[in-house]
Amino acid sequence: MAVTQLKNCVELPLNNEDLSEIIDKAKDYALMHGMTMHSNNPFNRNFVRISRFTLLPTSFPEKEFLKAKNIQITLNNLIHKVAYDHDFLTSTLQSTIKADEFTRKLYNIYKTVHKEGYTQTNSVGLMRSDYLLNGDMKIKQVEFNTISSSFGGLAPITAKLHKYILTELGHSDKTINIPENKSINGLAKGLIEAWKLYKNKEAVILFIVEENTSNICDQRAFDYVIHEVNPQIKIIRRTFKEIIKQAQLRPNKELIVGKYLVAVVYYRTGYEAAAYTSEDVWSVRLLIEQSKALKCPSIQYQLAGTKKVQQVLAQPGVLRRFLNEDEATRVREVFTGLYSLDFDELGEQAIEMAIMEPKKFVMKPQREGGGNNIYGDEIRSKLEAIRNSRDRDAYILMEYIDAPLQDNYLLGPNDQEPQIQSLISELGIYGIIIGDQNHVSVNEQVGHVIRSKPFGEDEGGIIAGAGALDSPYLVK
Ligand code: ADP
Ligand code: MG
Fold first, then answer.
1. Which atom of ligand 1 lies nearest, measured to the CA of 140?
2. Surface-to-core class of residue 141, CB atoms within 10 Å of its CB (0-12 exposed, 13-18 middle, 19+ buried)
3. What is the whole-number distance in angstroms between the Cα of residue 46 and the centre of ligand 1?
4. What is the helix (H) or strand (E) element at residue 218, kind and residue range?
5. How far, in whole angstroms, is CA 160 from its chain's centroid?
6. What does the pLDDT look like over 398-436, one tens digit per residue?
């Protein structure tokens, strides 16, 4: 598997003299321009380390890059419509919520606010649709993120770094193939437009954050872009623990956190079960959902971003419930095979298929944030273990996307003497959307990121240290 090689933007290997000089320059560029994170092992807010990145950009077929960009608005719209389709959301998640406690608890919040009637009818999405190239060099969607989509703050710096590196290597003529990337401006616009909708200049944007945020530069990038656009907009950061103590709802459903009235809530945590450390966290999540504040994402957006929804959307005919024929065709083209593992006939067929040829599939639980998927022979043993239990409804099965490899150098805090490595690259396209049941007021495609990981490592979390920030080098 994964034998295809894409041609690099420059010939490799670089000679040793060039290499050590250019690595110095690249690492210092990253340091100086905030492609950095706090150390997280142990966490220390007074130290930063460079984020892992690739020395060179990654060749990516221009046509496929543009295809991914052009489809983003349709995908935003699709997920928006799913989120506001009560019957679809309910029936789609029915089996999942029986088997998966985390999704069930999210769903229960949704059920409550839906029954009460949304106090804030608008939802805010800062989305990221992720793709791998398949063996035939066509993009296939890996997943669609509706919560805490990261690296929009660092991706524009990576593109500039790569232009600088190519120039320093004597290839300034090639920098034109690295597309401009303003993802952070676009994502920040999403929050600014949401803030404007609230129509109160005193009200703030609340970032809900982890206890220790190592990926701080990616998040603070929002603060500074928003400050430049409108210095009146105040941003506060709170953990769930702090919000539990400080949050209250006024009778008119205004959300108050400490001394602040909150216009927009932006979650940079809360996408995984581990963030909900007590029932109080669940209660405060409900309280926020019941408030007038705009939520990025709302509970229904978060549910629309589940892997179960992705799987059901890929079933024949389902896209047409939400999209016209032309849109549905274009979306279908980027979907790969997705199968339910539910306790029924189709589920049985999928299990048979996966047990026969496990290497052709990935098994995914309803989780976000990386490190949860099951691959290869482990699929077989897992399926054999849970075949006769409800647990299997908590997973979906996906065709394995056989991405091409590309050589590059990885630079990071732990990469002392970089050697050429074979990497797999995942393209992410950012989108913003704001709307309610009847009207979408903002829907844009706003930029991109590439994250690359060494071949053989199944999951490329950048914060965890395996993945690296990268950018596309467009080729015909
Ligand atoms: P998460 O929500 O944990 O990020 P993803 O669906 O993005 O879940 O999967 C995590 C990683 O697993 C991806 O970044 C990708 O590297 C790999 N992966 C996921 N789906 C596939 C697939 N169908 N084929 C090959 N690799 C995949
Ligand atoms: Mg992912």
1. 23
2. buried
3. 33
4. helix 216-229
5. 22
6. 999 999 999 999 999 887 788 899 999 999 999 999 999
Cα separations in angstroms, 112 against 255, 382, 396, 430? 18, 34, 26, 30
Active site residue 381: no
pLDDT of residue 3: 55
CA–CA dist 251, 117 (Å, integer): 15
Residues 295 and 263 sit within 8 Å (Cβ to Cβ): no
Query: Which residue type occupies 274?
Result: A
Q: Is 145 a catalytic residue?
A: yes
Pocket mutation for ligand 1, best pick of 459, 462, 463, 470 (most atoms within 8 Å of C-beta): 459
Q: Which atom of ligand 1 is nearest to the CA of 145?
A: 2
CA of 400 to the centre of ligand 2 (A): 14
CB of 431 closer than 8 Å to CB of 73: yes
Residue 387 is a catalytic residue: no
Q: CA nearest 72: which of 434, 426, 400, 448?
A: 448
Question: What percent of the chain has pLDDT above 70?
Answer: 97
* Residue nearest to ligand 1 atom 20, measured at CA: 142
Report the predicted TM-score, pTM, of the whole model to 2 decimal places. 0.97
- Does residue 364 have an active-site annotation? yes
Please check whether residue 444 is in contact with residue 437, taking contact to mean a CB–CB distance below 8 angstroms.
no
